[in-house]
Each structure stands twice: as C-alpha cells, then as structure tokens.
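can u do me a favor
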C-alpha cells in the first residue's frame, strides 16, 4: 500500500477481513485521509475467491510507490494484490520468506516463495518447528517492528572496547504457556530465526503464568509475566551480543549466521499490572529508547530502557561507572512524573502504537482500547528544538554586529594594503 509521502500519488490503505458467510478473504481499500473507499466498485470492497491463511506487506514497491500485499491460501498458493504489482514479487520471489504459527497444533512452519510462468507463485515449506500442543500453547508471536531503526551497531564498554550487537532482522519471539506434570504453570520464551527455523535462544520461567506482554526491538527483548510463586508481576529483559568482534559489517544473513549470541538477561519486580507494552520509535533511531507500559489503573508509564538494562551490576566497578550503568535494584520504582497521560486515565488498553515524527527527538504515541489516547514523548528531551525563551534578538544583534565588523575590517585591510603599495 502507499503512504502520504509520495505526492502526487494518493495514499492507499487496505484492511484484510473474512467473509461472514463464505469464510473467504475480503479487502477494503480506502483513503486514510478521508476514510472513503477508492475507485473499486462502489463500496471499495474486494471479495477474494480463496481462503487467506497468511498475509504480509512486501518491502519493495512498484514505480508508483505502491507496496503489494502478499496473500497465501491453505494450498500454499500465493496471490498478489493489486495484481498489477505481480512483477515486483516476481523479481524477488526467491528472496522472499514467510512463516506461520498454528496455535491449534503448535506447529511453526517457514516457507519460501517460488515463481514460474506456468504455475505462478507457490510457497514451499522450508522448515518446521513443533511445540507440543499437549504441554504448551502458543500465546504470542512477536517480530521486530517494521519501522524500527538501528543507529549504533555496538555498545562502548568502560575499557573503551566495543561489544557488538546481535542484529538479526529475521528473529521473532514466541511465548508459550503450559503446565508440567505437577500441574504447575510455566512460561517458555523462544527466539526463532524464521528463515532457517533455528532456535537461537530459549528460556523457561517455572511457576509463572500470563498474561505476557512483549516488546522486541534491535538486539533486546522486554517482557512481563506473573510470578505465581512470589505472587508478583515481574519484568524481564534480555540483550544479545555477537561479542567484541563483528562477523559481518555490511548485512546480516540468516543463511550464513554468526556464532550463537551472548545473551545477557535480568528480571525486576514490577509493582504494576501491565495490559500492553511498546517501545518509542524515532526517525533515525538516535534518540534513547523508552518503554511504554499501559497500566491497569489507567496510566501510561514511560520507562527508560536504561532501567531495564540486564547488565546493571550488583557491585559496580570503575568500568561500570565509566560506562554509565545504573546499580542493580530488584524493584523498578517509577515516579508519577513518568505517567505521560497525567490525570487523563485511559482504561482497558489493548495496544500501543509508536511512530516517528518529523523531529528526531519526538515520538508519536497512540494507545487504543476502550479509550483512545494520543500524545508526543521526548525520550532524550527536545535536543533538536530551540526553547521558547530563546533570545532571538540577542543572536540577531550579535550576528549583525559580526557582519558589519567583518565588512569594516575587510575595507580597512584593503586600504592598508593600498597605502603600503604606494610607499
């Protein structure tokens, strides 16, 4: 589909749905500016003659900046909407991978798209991962944010060495919930590369249960869960690093991956009930990351990612202080100033969406559920905006004086050279 950034081409969005009678797919194509349907019939609804099993938006676009929607039916046949964009997929079909997760069977499957003139687009299974349905149920499948930008490839340590991040764009987080032989609940977390099916990392939280909320960005994952043993909410963070040497400085390839990552993880006590969670997103990714937590009491908490750093030391050394690490404290204490919606309570939040603004320092936040709330946040403050009390008159006077001084000095220097030439 197309955004508003490609004038004079009109923006175009689509909503994928399911027909109430036939169960087949339906698309509603409309303008995000007016909300009116585009010139497709009268209602803007496109009825598909097949069932939709999986759908995703292609990264590439056509000559009119239109990104096609890729749809797959239960027979693994692939369709493109709009059909005029089939050439875009045909050029990169062998490089396109997709995956599906079936909660009923607990099976995750990866596919590769193949193209031929006789049979068109077909997806063939590449790998399969089986999470037994008898012992656990898939709760969440969370990929990385599509509009997330990575500004720094590494992290500078206190001894001036660099710890390089494990930046795998094909990594997804899968969480499952289940019960063991003693009927005690547990939560499992898997980091799976959806190109090869490799399980990069897994963790088990015994005597824990959901609801689980997750944020997946860059080389880190933050998630919350309920600790049944200690009867409290906990928030855990893990970060992945390649080490002090980077295997590939240009692009990451899952087909030639680096060695298994170094995983740093830590858990904290969270004195809140969290219903949704997201991370701030900016234009270039330079601004510090903040975690946005929708609380059950109607607040939206803006928590700096530095407070959830898994490398926070219990006994900090000089190198830790040089790096700027905060000493470890088991409980996350957040003052009321971190509530971004102040006294405007927002209840039953189902999700939080973050988007970049025109300024690098600013991130737009939209929370939706029973209530709707939209605001702006500045994780690193407004470093690229002049303050309201900025003295424009003083700067103007100083600049004007410097310009006149430079002109006057230039004329005086030219006169002095002329007088020296006549002597």
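np, heres the sequence
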């Amino acid at each position: 589909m197309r955004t508003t950034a490609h004038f004079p081409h009109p923006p175009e969005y689509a909503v994928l749905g399911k027909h109430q009678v036939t169960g087949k797919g339906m698309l509603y194509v409309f303008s995000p500016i007016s909300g009116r349907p585009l010139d497709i019939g009268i209602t803007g609804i496109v009825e598909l003659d097949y069932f939709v099993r999986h759908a995703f938006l292609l990264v590439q676009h056509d000559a009119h900046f239109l990104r096609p929607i890729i749809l797959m039916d239960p027979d693994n046949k692939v369709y493109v909407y709009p059909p005029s964009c089939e050439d875009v997929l045909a050029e990169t079909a062998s490089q396109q991978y997709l995956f599906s997760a079936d909660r009923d069977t607990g099976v995750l499957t990866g596919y590769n798209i193949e193209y031929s003139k006789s049979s068109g687009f077909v997806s063939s299974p590449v790998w399969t991962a089986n999470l037994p349905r008898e012992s656990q149920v898939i709760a969440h499948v969370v990929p990385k944010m599509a509009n997330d930008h990575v500004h720094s490839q590494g992290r500078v340590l206190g001894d001036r060495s660099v710890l390089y991040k494990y930046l795998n764009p094909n990594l997804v987080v899968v969480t499952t919930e289940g019960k063991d032989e003693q009927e005690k609940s547990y939560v499992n977390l898997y980091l799976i590369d959806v190109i090869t099916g490799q399980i990069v990392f897994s963790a088990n939280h015994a005597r824990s249960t959901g609801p689980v909320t997750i944020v997946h960005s860059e080389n880190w994952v933050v998630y919350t869960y309920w600790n049944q043993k200690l009867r409290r909410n906990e928030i855990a963070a893990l970060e992945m690093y390649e080490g002090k040497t980077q295997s590939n400085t240009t692009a990451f390839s899952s087909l030639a991956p680096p060695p298994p990552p170094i995983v740093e993880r830590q858990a904290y006590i969270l004195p809140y009930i969290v219903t949704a969670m997201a991370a701030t997103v900016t234009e270039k990714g330079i601004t510090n990351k903040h975690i946005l937590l929708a609380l059950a009491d109607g607040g939206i908490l803006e928590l700096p990612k530095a407070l959830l750093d898994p490398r926070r030391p219990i006994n900090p050394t000089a190198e830790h202080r040089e790096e700027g690490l905060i000493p470890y404290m088991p409980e996350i204490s957040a003052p009321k100033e971190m509530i971004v919606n102040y006294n405007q309570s927002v209840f039953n939040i189902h999700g939080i969406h973050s988007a970049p603004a025109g300024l690098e320092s600013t991130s737009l936040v939209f929370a939706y559920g029973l209530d709707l709330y939209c605001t702006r946040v500045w994780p690193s403050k407004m470093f690229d905006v002049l303050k309201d009390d900025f003295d424009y008159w003083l700067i103007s006077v100083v600049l004007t004086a410097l310009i006149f001084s430079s002109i006057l000095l230039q004329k005086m220097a030219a006169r002095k050279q002329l007088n020296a030439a006549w002597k």
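The chain is about 10% helix and 40% strand. hope that helps!!
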